[in-house]
Amino acid sequence: MTQKVDRVQQDDFLGPANTTVAIFLISVLGLFLEMLLIRWIGTEVRIFAYLQNTILVVCFLGLGLGLFTSRQPINLRATLIPLAVLGIIFAVPLTRQSAGMISGLLSATGDILIWGTLPAADVWTRILYVGVGLAAVYALMVFIIDCFVPIGRILGRMMDDHPRTIWAYSVNIAGSLVGTWLFVLLSALYQPPFTWFSILAVLVFFFLRKVGPGWKVNLLLLGGIVVASWFAGQVPGAQRVVWSPYQKLVVIKTDPEEHGWDGYWVTVNNTGYQAMRDLTKPDTTDSFMYPPEMDGLSQYDIPLLLHPAPESLLIVGAGAGNDAAGGLRHGVKQITAVEIDPAIISLGRAYHPERPYASPAVEIVTDDARSFFATSDRRFDVIVFSLLDSHTTTAMTNARLDHYVYTRESINRAKSLLAPGGVMVLSFEAEKPYVADRMARVLRDVFGEAPIAFRIPATGYGYGGVLFVSGDLQVARAQIAKNPRLDSLIASLQQIFPLGLSYTTLTTTDDWPYIYLETPRIPSLYYLLAGLLLALFLRSYRRWKAAGLAARWGVSHWHFFFLGAAFLLLEVQNISKASVVLGNTWQVNAIIVSGVLTMALLANLIAYKFPRLPLSVAYTGLIGTCLALYFVDLAQFAFLPYATKALIVGGLTTLPMLFSGIVFIRSFAAAARKDEALGANMAGALVGALLQSITFVTGIRALLLIVTGLYCLALLTRPGGVMPKSGRIMAQRPPITP
Amino acid sequence: MRTPARIATLALLLGLILALPGSPAATAHDTKEGRV
User: Fold this and answer.
1) DSSP for A184-198?
2) In 3D, which of A463, A450, A442 has the Cα closest to residue A387?
3) How far is CA A142 from CA A89, A149, A686, in A?
4) Over 60: is that where the pLDDT of A423 sits?
5) How far apart are CA A270 and CA A710, in angstroms?
6) Would you tell me the crossing angle of helices A642-670 and A615-631 to the nearest 10 degrees?
7) Exposure b/e, A149-176, CB count within 10 A at least 16 = b
8) Is the pLDDT of residue A138 over 90?
9) What is the pLDDT of residue A557?
10) ipTM reported for the complex, 2 dp
């Protein structure tokens, strides 16, 4: 888009006349839009639900470029047009479907497993798929990055012009965190894109008349974006669309003519997930869909047949209620159904034909499986890990929602919930042999005996997957021996679908939870995306006239760069650790974000009250707490009540940020150009986000050592100077000499 | 590249994806297979 430089008043107020309010609102807007795009694009182009960092990095890149070039003209239309384009793509079903296919194209690299695979293809077809996929991602990213540049420029200019640095920075932090919180809150309240964009429009409106020319056209664009977002939230032919705190759920009533069965189908983030149908009345005339040998022996029945008298059943990943219905069919008196997404439970209540969640025998627990294991002291005759493969992550980590459920530590904890003679049945859709081998090996390590394992094919009785039976195998084997039909079914399944378990695949732990990665290495897709981001940076560097930045880049820029990289990695580390202790739920983000807010504001207060506090104290505290956290096992607090452990984990993990906050604000107050300092910080953060992939090789805990190293580099590149009470000095200004 | 050209490029790519041979629209969880 052409910049109309001549019509832009450089010294105009950029938003509300009160600069505190203006900084607050632009900070809310920036982070709200970032959260919105991370969720929205992750939902519609599913591969980015697993690679949320990519969207985060692009947003940071846009903000950073805006900060670096804050003295250039600002035109809000440069934000609105890309948003309108994205809105239209996701509003029109055909383009939405096409954008969604990017996931399948990129999965053709073959070393990142996402649900939904490509048909077998030769190497050139795969290269074509990945090439077209990357080109489409690049084209999408261009629009995302451009959205953020004007926002970064507004923020940078206001921060640089503000007379009270600590105050301005505190307002910036508070605004950023309110923006994050606001989006988390909307997600928690099941709000669809229309609500997100309506709130975004209100935030943009504050700046609409002040920034750039043609505000009436901009207002029309803004209205158009909100209208498009309404269409983007709809799915043609759907019974219901729910934007739950975790994902987009669509309920479709199946047509017996078209689909061959009658019931309800639930998709998650545009891919098939689970069905609800009445298994008490299978259509036995259709022997292809309902093989007679599996009648009464579905994956939802078998776990209950492996125990002589199951009184209590625990289901983790209970979904819409297929497992609970299975338990009820076998007369289980106490069924505990644990499901992380409350929306899926509601759909089960409303649509499941067997009405399992209406039974008084079923107790529903809305929680992460891992969190339930940690806090429950009950014992169960049968524990079922249902097919809880996930289609999303909760946060900025590279571990998916289901990752911490299948680690050795988690299975060990689940084992302790088994009653004497109890049986554990774990179902998993192992798309690759190593995934099945990994699960089997974890179970063998924990139970000291190899599980009984067999693959169940997809039929009308269930989606199937590999079933692993552990626990008291003497009991399970006796049950199988007593049931000739079951015995013969298992024997034939083991023969037809040999699993070839070798017990050699690396097992997953809380430190290395990557179920879908065969060996510790960075998947090639990550390198391709990093290359793409570099190309994007070079393009945007020219497009947004950031030339000269490289020449100006000095030691103090490096200082802010290292602080940014360390900060982001520390936050990733915190969320990963907190996910293990508190459960991998959206509340974890809120807790960590709140911890960061508290620490940053506390740091500002300390810096303001004690301007002569030796920085050596802050650096010692910072590096000391990072190293100390490396040796502290936070999992030991998992058994505590939720509020207590949230306080402990939130406080302990964010403690280094108190010290890094003091270092940052002291350096920031001393920086000659606030906009460039923030820009360098942002550039560091995006490199930190890319560095996160190292955990695929090193495990998560090692990040703390990298963080410590980055803080040491920040120490080596620190600017000098003592901050006066006003919080504004120019340490790098040359001394005034007569 | 100016905005209209960028929009046209994106539209072209999205169209190309739909036209790709063996386009990976089919997923492992396919309703037509009647899986539960």
Assistant:
1) HHHHHTT--HHHHHH
2) A463
3) 14, 11, 16
4) yes
5) 40
6) 150
7) bbbbbbbbbbbbebebbbbbbbbbbbbb
8) yes
9) 93
10) 0.78
Token digits for A256? 């017996």
Instruction: Name the token pair of A699.
Output: 């495990």
A622-634 average pLDDT score? 91
Is any Cβ of chain B less than 8 angstroms from the Cβ of A121? yes
The arithmetic mean of pLDDT across residues A464-475, rounded, is: 96
Neighbours of A251 (CB within 10 A): 19
- Average pLDDT value over all residues in chain A: 87
Residue A22 one-letter amino acid: A
Residues in contact with A139: Cβ distance below 8 Å, sequence separation at least 6, in sequence order:
B6, B9, B10, B13
Residues of B near A (Cβ–Cβ under 8 Å) read 2-3, 6-7, 9-11, 13-18, 20-36
Q: Which residues of A touch B15 (CB under 8 A)?
A: 98
> What single-letter DSSP state applies at residue A462?
B
Residue of A nearest to B18 (CA): A98
Which chain A residues touch B32 with a CB distance below 8 Å? 258-260
> Can you tell me the distance from the alpha carbon of A678 to that of A65, in angstroms, rounded to the nearest whole number?
10
Burial A413-444 (b: 16+ CB within 10 A, else e): bbbebbbeebbbbbbbbbbebbbbbbbbbbbb
In B, minimum Cα distance to A121 occurs at B22
Counting runs of H as helices and runs of E as strands, what totals does chain B give?
1, 0
Beta bridge partners of A315: A337, A384
Q: Give the closest of A108, A116, A261 to B27, CB-based.
A: A116
pLDDT in tens, A571-587: 878 877 787 787 766 67
- With beta carbons less than 8 A apart as the criterion, state whether A370 and A400 touch: no
Q: With an 8 Å Cβ cutoff, are A98 and B17 in contact?
A: yes
Which two tokens mark A86? 């994205």
What distance in Å separates the CA atoms of residue A202 and residue A46, rounded to the nearest whole number?
A: 28
| pLDDT at residue A22 tops 50 | yes
pLDDT at A119: 56
Tell me how crowded residue A596 is: count the other CB atoms within 10 A of its CB: 24
